[in-house]
Design a protein that fits this description.
Length: about 350
């Protein structure tokens, strides 16, 4: 059984990672994976804060956690913002913690990815990057459609990831651009389905709320070209509704997939048809983050190689870095200040 240490207690750490782990532990179906002992938590922003949920035991430092945990039997969840990862990874490695689940994205720039990969090699870290869409039953279903070839050859992927994210964006500067929030999920799926790619075009807009402007946190769009297909991803953080939609165009058919849009309803939907044939509509359970944690805890326990997913996560960061560079506004506009105070700060991931 594996103990748990969660670092970073924001939306990702408490609202996602711990919420899912608590549900998995309570279900009792994976008693070989999850130790029922309290999970330790460390919030670098408030190291003396009291516990914020039942079943958690706070510690004030990585060093204190080391006195209470055996690193060989502990999985660390690193849920700090992607701009604040390398120092904590070094600290964890120095304390002996080497099995680490890192909240997506791995980083927000190429240099940071290179530094993290170098550290992982030097310290023999087993890093898993959170990728629930890659563990999704819906993604597996799409992968089968591509591999089986019943609809012909894949020619294009069109992704829509929309959700209103105004309040969290105003309060939290942990994600530098809209490219760093939702696209890491879908770009990994595009690379899984269609293979490696190069950037074709990218656009990025600001988030505008009245007189307040948050640079680069509005609508993000990128197009990448695979060997035989093209993927287009549009993520709008100012949209009034939430949507996670993927459309695949084949030479002899089409598939339209909707990933679960809310945490209280883990059901995916898939519609697909061959040209000129009736449409098939499937609705099925798809609790992707739970599946991801079960699979990853098991892989870390068994010593399964995680390099393939680490390479994929690194490639996602590289392509998103290309997109940010391509969409950067020339000249003095790069440094345009906000039209009003936003109160943004680096806090927690998610």
């Amino acid at each position: 059984m594996e103990r748990t240490l969660i670092i970073g207690l924001g939306r990702a750490g408490l609202g996602l990672h711990w919420a899912v782990l608590r549900r998995l532990r309570a279900a009792g179906r994976h008693t070989d994976l999850f130790d029922p002992a309290p999970a330790l938590t460390f919030d670098p922003l408030a190291p003396s804060a009291p516990p914020r949920a039942e079943g958690l035991r706070p510690v004030s430092s990585v060093a204190e956690a080391r006195t209470l945990l055996d690193p060989e039997r502990t999985v660390v969840h690193l849920c700090t913002p992607p701009v604040a990862r390398l120092g904590l990874l070094r600290e964890l490695a120095a304390a002996g913690f080497r099995r680490i689940i890192v909240e997506k994205p791995l980083a927000v720039e190429r240099r940071a990815v290179q530094d993290i990969l170098a550290l992982a090699r030097a310290e023999r870290l087993s890093l898993a990057i959170v990728a629930p869409w890659l563990a999704s039953s819906l993604t597996a279903r799409l992968d089968r459609l591509v591999e089986d070839g019943d609809l012909g050859e894949l020619r294009s992927i069109d992704v829509t990831q929309s959700k209103p994210r105004m309040s969290r964006t105003l309060a939290d500067g942990g994600h530098p651009t809209a490219f760093d929030v939702e696209p890491p999920h879908s770009l990994g799926v595009c690379l899984r389905l269609a293979g490696d790619a190069v950037l074709a075009t990218a656009e990025l807009t600001d988030m505008r709320i009245g007189d307040t402007v948050i640079p680069g946190m509005g609508r993000a769009e990128l197009v990448v070209r695979h060997q035989a297909a093209t993927s287009r991803i549009v993520s709008d953080l100012t949209a009034p509704v939430r949507e996670r939609r993927v459309q695949l165009e084949f030479t002899d058919g089409r598939a339209v997939a909707h990933y679960p849009g809310a945490e209280d309803d883990h059901y995916a939907q898939l519609r697909f048809s061959r040209t000129g044939h009736p449409e098939t509509w499937e609705v099925f359970p798809d609790d992707a983050l739970s599946a991801y944690f079960v699979d990853t805890y098991r892989a870390l326990r068994d010593g399964t190689a995680l390099e393939p997913q680490l390479r994929l996560a690194s490639r996602v960061v590289e392509l998103l870095a290309d997109a940010k560079e391509a969409s950067r506004r020339p000249g003095p506009a790069d440094a345009l200040p906000s039209a009003g105070p936003t109160g943004r700060r680096v806090s927690h991931a998610g």
